[in-house]
């Protein structure tokens, strides 16, 4: 393996299953079966004349961590494969020197591409397979149908397990009930709505207009889990099919995880691609990469955008020597509208008027949100788009946590003059002071969380008179009713009481 080799993506594959359990267990997909199907599609996609030699060339097989293995408290209802990367390698007949099971986060696919490309350039690898899969939809369907599949697969062998990593929420956040992604993202969403001067209905209309474009793309995507075009009006309007969740979000503003999807990418040195006879038309190059990691959300100075996105996108574009105006193809992470709004702000894009699509897949609510692995689908779809437009450049933004971990990549079929590895992830280091026993202040942003019978509780971030931030919550019906109107609560004065590390607020 030579140092200084040019890394190149040479094969991409995707798959989707719409198995619903109504005909019994036959055909139920597992994470391993889906990953194998996507990997075989990627092998075919390379157009090599010697697939056996390609499989023999894999020195690294990496699998993006499934959601079942990302939450320590979760007990998989039907069992799991104990070693997905080695199981995948054996399923396709590979015998790699290294098998890796990634850490947690939706930034993982792009971060792993950055890493694998750097390892090839350093001479530490020559040919690698990266894959990921989720079968959450099948598991939910099996439970609904009363089926009891056995998905335990024991693979004997070692792997490099990178674990779940540090918690992405603080004790104070958890104490106040911020335990689900939608709760965190609604804090961002309401901060953006306030900045733009929008009422609740006006912001829902903006979210609907943005995501109607995404759903139209998903409707034409053969790998989409929910391929149906939904109108801006439907997406902006509460209904039985589009119920309120965490204000201002309705169901179809949120990534849908009930999917059976997998994707795979093959990356190797240019010399290996030449040796395997892979045509130049199948090759996609990584021109720039960027990564960053932010603080706990309650410690971040900015709540109407993302510092980590700013850094990751700026680094990737700078390394590629491109501006956002020179990018033709985008796949921006879209777990919630605010993630797209934030990325568009960084890139200087007007999402309402720019003719360029901001997704290649159709986005996480409509294409599907396969856990940590979504952006591998984004990368695969971007590679396909760039092959069809060989003079174009594409940008993928992958997001983990609550805009906590970001990774970006700039791609093209055009060969760069040289490859430069992405810098190590930047880390935010200027936290906001958080006070644990405030007496009063004003609302900085908020979320109103809905249950089956309407609003159940609310959480706010606020600022004291001296600028310290606090977190507070409320379950008082009168307070929740005040928060249910059209106007934003941001800027309203609140009084607070503290008990057992929990601050409770009332409007002053």
Explain how this protein is built.
This protein has 508 residues and is an alpha/beta fold. It has 2 domains: 7-167 and 256-427, 3-Layer(aba) Sandwich (Peroxisomal Thiolase, Chain A, domain 1), CATH 3.40.47.10; 440-507, OB fold (Dihydrolipoamide Acetyltransferase, E2P). Helix content is 30%, strand content 21%. The protein is built from 14 helices and 16 strands. The chain has helices spanning 31-45, 51-57, 84-92, 108-122, 136-144, 171-175, 181-195, 200-219, 232-236, 270-275, 307-320, 337-347, 374-388, 477-482; strands at residues 7-16, 60-63, 98-101, 127-134, 160-161, 261-269, 285-293, 329-332, 393-400, 405-412, 426-427, 440-451, 454-463, 469-474, 493-499, 502-507. A 6-stranded mixed beta sheet has the order 1-6-4-2-3-5, with helices on both faces. A 5-stranded mixed beta sheet has the order 8-9-10-7-11. Strands 14-13-12-15-16 form a 5-stranded antiparallel beta sheet. Helix 7 (181-195) packs across helix 12 and helix 11 (307-320) packs across helix 12 (337-347). The longest helix has 20 residues, at 200-219. The protein is globular and about 70 Å long.
């Amino acid at each position: 393996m030579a140092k200084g080799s040019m890394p190149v993506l040479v094969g991409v594959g995707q798959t989707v299953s719409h198995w619903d359990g109504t005909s019994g267990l036959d055909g139920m997909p597992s994470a391993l079966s889906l990953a194998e199907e996507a990997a075989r599609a990627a092998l075919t996609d390379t157009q090599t004349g010697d697939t056996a030699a390609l499989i023999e060339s894999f020195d690294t097989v990496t699998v993006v961590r499934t959601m079942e293995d990302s939450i320590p408290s979760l007990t998989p209802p039907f069992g799991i494969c104990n070693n997905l990367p080695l199981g995948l390698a054996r399923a396709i007949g590979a015998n790699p020197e290294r098998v890796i099971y990634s850490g947690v986060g939706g930034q993982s696919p792009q971060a792993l591409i950055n890493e694998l490309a750097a390892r090839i350039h350093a001479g530490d690898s020559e040919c690698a397979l990266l894959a990921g899969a989720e079968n959450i939809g099948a598991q939910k369907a099996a439970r609904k149908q009363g089926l009891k599949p056995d998905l335990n697969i024991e693979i004997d062998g070692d792997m490099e397990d990178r674990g779940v990593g540090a918690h992405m929420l603080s004790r104070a956040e958890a104490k106040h009930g911020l335990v689900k992604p939608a709760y965190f993202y609604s804090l961002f969403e309401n901060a953006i709505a306030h900045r733009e001067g929008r009422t609740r209905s006006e912001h829902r209309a903006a979210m609907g207009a943005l995501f109607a474009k995404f759903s139209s793309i998903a409707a034409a995507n053969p790998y989409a889990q929910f391929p149906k075009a939904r109108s801006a009006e439907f997406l902006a309007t509460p209904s039985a099919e589009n119920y309120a969740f965490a204000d201002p979000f309705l169901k179809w503003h949120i990534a849908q995880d009930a999917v059976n999807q997998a994707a795979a990418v093959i990356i190797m040195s240019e010399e290996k691609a030449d040796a395997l006879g892979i045509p130049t038309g199948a090759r996609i190059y990584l021109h720039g990469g960027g990564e960053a990691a932010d603080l706990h959300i309650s410690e971040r100075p900015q709540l109407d955008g993302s510092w980590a996105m700013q850094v990751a996108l700026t680094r990737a574009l700078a390394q590629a020597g491109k501006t956002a105006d020179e990018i033709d193809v985008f796949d921006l992470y879209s777990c919630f509208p605010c993630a797209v709004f934030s990325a568009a702000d960084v890139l200087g894009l007007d999402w309402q008027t720019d003719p360029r699509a901001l997704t290649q897949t159709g986005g996480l609510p409509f294409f599907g949100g396969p856990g940590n692995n979504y952006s591998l689908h984004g990368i695969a779809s971007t590679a396909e788009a760039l092959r069809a437009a060989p003079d174009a450049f594409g940008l993928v933004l992958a997001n983990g946590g609550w805009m906590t971990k970001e990774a970006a990549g700039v791609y093209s079929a055009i060969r760069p003059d040289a490859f430069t590895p992405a810098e190590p992830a930047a880390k935010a280091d200027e936290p906001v002071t958080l006070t644990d026993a405030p007496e009063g202040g004003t609302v900085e942003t908020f979320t109103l969380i809905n249950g089956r019978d309407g609003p159940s509780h609310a959480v706010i971030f606020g600022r004291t008179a001296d600028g310290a931030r606090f977190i507070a919550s409320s379950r008082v019906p009168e307070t929740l009713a005040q928060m249910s109107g059209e106007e934003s609560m941001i800027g309203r004065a609140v009084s607070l009481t503290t008990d057992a590390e929990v601050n409770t607020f009332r409007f002053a």
